[in-house]
Write a structure and sequence with these properties.
By secondary structure, the protein is an alpha/beta fold. The chain has 14 helices and 14 strands. The protein starts with 6 loop residues before the first strand and ends with a helix.
């Protein structure tokens, strides 16, 4: 007999931009199943990754905390995940059957954090001798003849690779197959929580041919490149995983069509999953939550990958469909990953740990408490062999102030009138008072973090980046 408490299906693809849903009025993108889900649920149009790269975004989600509090203000591999309270653990201890299939990006890779069952997809073989469940299966299924492009090539490249093998062998299909199998074999006397972590549309961009061809002849809109970006990011591309630079138009075109094809491929598999839930009479008592960890710049402003506060990197899609589709519409409340934990725990009638800093969105789903939060503060520090950056930003989805703490560069965008961030109006005297209000919000946020040294005497201090004095990034 099914438990009376609601179930939760959390669909969590990697590197899916916030403007890549058909329901978000994007005529290029074909996402019919997610569009239908959004029609039955609530879309949060001002959703952002508070730390726009894989590991920190996932840590914020798992802990319900800010990047700074959970110790992940930037990207770094190989740091053990040790948290007393996680979403998965609280659900498990509260009587839920907790399952995960696909990408986690935890470390060590097979740490559970509260998941009772885990079937892993992980291309990060460089971190140890771990071979993920997908790659073991693929090797056995094809006698080693089919290889995963994310293992064989740089998985932060902007190159497009064709998936030439049968579609059922693709990681996206494998993830859906295993999610359905887990649900078929779940404990029927307990409610369930399942996290489904599609690695795609993260590069390398490799949709099956059918999905790539859907976009082959579509006219794509121009890639936004603001005047500010031409000055800052114009350079020769040196490596296939470069963060900045100018690519030939034909490479940009292939990349975008393959990325969109990957999105439609995932959407089709989500449709398959939803049909299974309906067929097995689980749909009506299940929350379905869809969001990504961060976006993909795909050439916006001569930039690639993620980690910046720009819309293509930091803005994410965010849909919550409640049981029996009772609540629908769009919401303007700024939301982020750390809100998912308290939302699910409140819906499951479980205690929210005191350490959680996110807010439950149940009231916002009903159209109440739209002023519960007025802005999102985000950050991302990154250190590589040729780049040191410390991004800080504050936004409500309508306006955005950005400060790069190492160089001291500032940006201000009017997103309502300039959604593609073409004009940096930081020096517009008419905007001075408004910019100062946003700057003060950032100062008030950062001054509480004295260990970072980013604020002194009520002013932002340049030449530093947030985790510079922390063991986290500087071991």
């Amino acid at each position: 007999m099914e438990a009376s408490r609601p179930n939760f299906v959390f669909i969590f693809p990697d590197q899916w931009r916030g403007d890549c849903l058909g329901k978000d009025d994007n005529p290029i993108i074909e996402t019919p199943y997610l569009d239908a889900l959004a029609s039955e649920g609530v879309m949060f149009n001002h959703a952002y990754a508070a730390a726009p790269s894989c590991i920190p975004a996932r840590a914020c989600l798992a802990t319900g905390q800010t990047p700074s509090t959970c110790g992940r203000p930037g990207y770094r591999d190989g740091i053990p995940w040790r948290y007393e309270h996680t979403l998965m653990k609280e659900l498990r201890d509260g009587g839920y059957h907790t399952m995960c299939v696909g990408k986690t990006h935890f470390y060590p890779q097979r740490v559970r954090l509260g998941f009772e069952e885990l079937r892993l997809y992980d291309p990060q073989e460089k971190l140890g001798d771990v071979k993920s469940d997908y790659h073991r299966w693929l090797e056995k299924e094809t006698n080693g003849k089919v290889k995963d492009p994310a293992i064989e090539w740089n998985n932060n490249t902007w190159m497009r690779y064709s998936w030439e093998a049968d579609e059922y062998l693709h990681p996206t299909n494998w993830t859906t197959d295993n999610a359905i199998e887990m649900l078929e074999n779940r404990d029927p006397h307990r409610p369930f929580f399942i996290q489904i972590g599609y690695h795609r549309p993260h590069s390398p961009y490799d949709p099956p041919k059918y999905y790539y061809d859907l976009y082959k002849d579509k006219e794509l809109p121009p890639i936004p490149v603001g005047d500010w970006a031409k000055k800052e990011n114009s350079r020769e591309i040196e490596e296939v995983d470069s963060f900045r630079g100018e690519l030939p138009d034909y490479l940009l075109d292939r990349m975008r069509r393959a990325y969109y094809g990957s999105i439609t491929h995932i959407d089709a598999q989500i449709g398959r999953l939803i049909f299974w839930l309906k067929k097995n009479r689980l749909y009506d008592n299940t929350y379905i939550i869809f969001c990504s960890d961060h976006g993909d710049l795909m050439g916006d402003h001569l930039s690639f990958r993620k980690v910046t506060p720009m819309e293509g990197s930091a803005r994410i899609p965010f849909i919550i469909r409640t049981p029996e589709s009772k609540i629908t519409g769009k919401r303007t409340l700024p939301v982020t990953h750390m809100d998912i934990m308290p939302t699910i725990l409140e819906a499951a009638k479980l205690k929210i740990p005191e350490e959680v800093e996110g807010i439950s969105l149940l009231s916002a789903l009903e159209g109440k408490d739209e002023k519960t939060r007025t802005f999102i503060h985000g950050e991302h520090s990154f250190v590589s062999k040729n780049m040191v950056e410390g991004w800080q930003f504050v936004t409500d989805g309508k306006e955005k102030y950005i400060w790069e703490s190492y160089s001291g560069k500032e940006y201000f965008f009017d997103l309502e009138n300039d959604p593609n961030e073409m004009k940096n109006i930081i020096n517009d005297e008419k905007q001075h008072d408004k910019i100062q209000l946003w700057k003060n919000l950032m100062i008030d946020t950062l001054k509480e973090r004295k260990e970072d040294g980013l604020v002194e005497d009520g002013k932002l201090v340049s030449g530093r980046y947030a985790p510079e004095v922390r063991e986290y990034l500087c071991k």
